[in-house]
Amino acid sequence: METNIGLLSNNGDLSDSFKNNLTDYSVRFYKSLDSIKSDDIVILSVDSEYFKSIESAQFHLSRIRKKLHDMPVLLVLTTSTIFALDFEWFFDDFILYPFRKEELALRIKKILWGKNLLAIEDVLIIGNIKINLKEYSVYINNIKQDFTYKEFELLRLFAENKGAVFSRKELLNRIWGIDYIGGTRTVDVHIRRLRGKLGDDFNSIIETVRNVGYRCRV
Fold first, then answer.
1. Which of 1, 55, 65, 176 is 20 to 30 Å apart from 90, CA to CA?
2. Considering only the top CATH level, what class is 4-114?
3. Residue 40 backbone phi and psi in degrees, to 5
4. 0.70 surpassed by pTM
5. CA angle 85-86-90, nearest 5°?
6. Could you read off the pLDDT of 138-158 as tens digits, one per residue?
7. Which CATH architecture has domain 123-216?
8. Domain ranges of the chain
9. What is the pLDDT of residues 111-141, one digit of tens each?
C-alpha cells in the first residue's frame, strides 16, 4: 500500500528537494489548505514560509489541526524562521530546509513509527500494540513486553483476522493442536493472562462474544 506524504508550500525549489529526498514515498503537493483531503495522505508537511509571517504560524497550524485532527504535522523551517519556533504550536516535529541528506526520510519514518502508521513487513499493528512476526515480540507504546509462545500466537491470530469470531474450540485446535487433551478452559486462562499483560488496550481491542468465543474488533 502506497504511503502518501503531503506538502503545503508555494516554493518550487523546496517542493522539488522534498520529493527528491523522499524516494520511498509518494508526495502530494498542496498550495492551499482547502485543497487538502485527510484521506489522501498520512502526514502533512508545512512550509513555514507559506505563512504570511512566522508570527502567524500558530493561527495557521491551529486551522490545520482543526481540519486534519490527529494527522501528524511536520513543520519545515529555515534559518530565518527557526528563531520563532514555539513548542505550543500544533506540530509533531520540525526540520530545517535546505534538507540534509537522509534527514527528511528519517524524520518522516520516525513520525510514522510513533503514530503506528509505518507499513513494515512482518509487523502487525492494532492500536498502540506492535506485533513483530519475525522477532516473535510484542511492543506496547514501543516498549517490548514479555510473552509466552502461546500468548503470542493467540494475539497474532486475532490481529491477522480482525473481526472474525473464534470459538474456544477453534482457538484450542489452532494454537494447541487437535491432539491437545486439555479442555477449552485453557483458552480462557491464556486470554486472562493476555488481558493482564496488555491491560485496558486488550479489553478495547479483543472482545468476548458471549456463549461463542473471542474476536478482534475492527
1. 1
2. alpha beta
3. -90, -20
4. no
5. 110
6. 988 878 899 999 999 999 898
7. Orthogonal Bundle (1.10)
8. 4-114, 123-216
9. 887 776 665 567 787 777 888 888 889 988 8
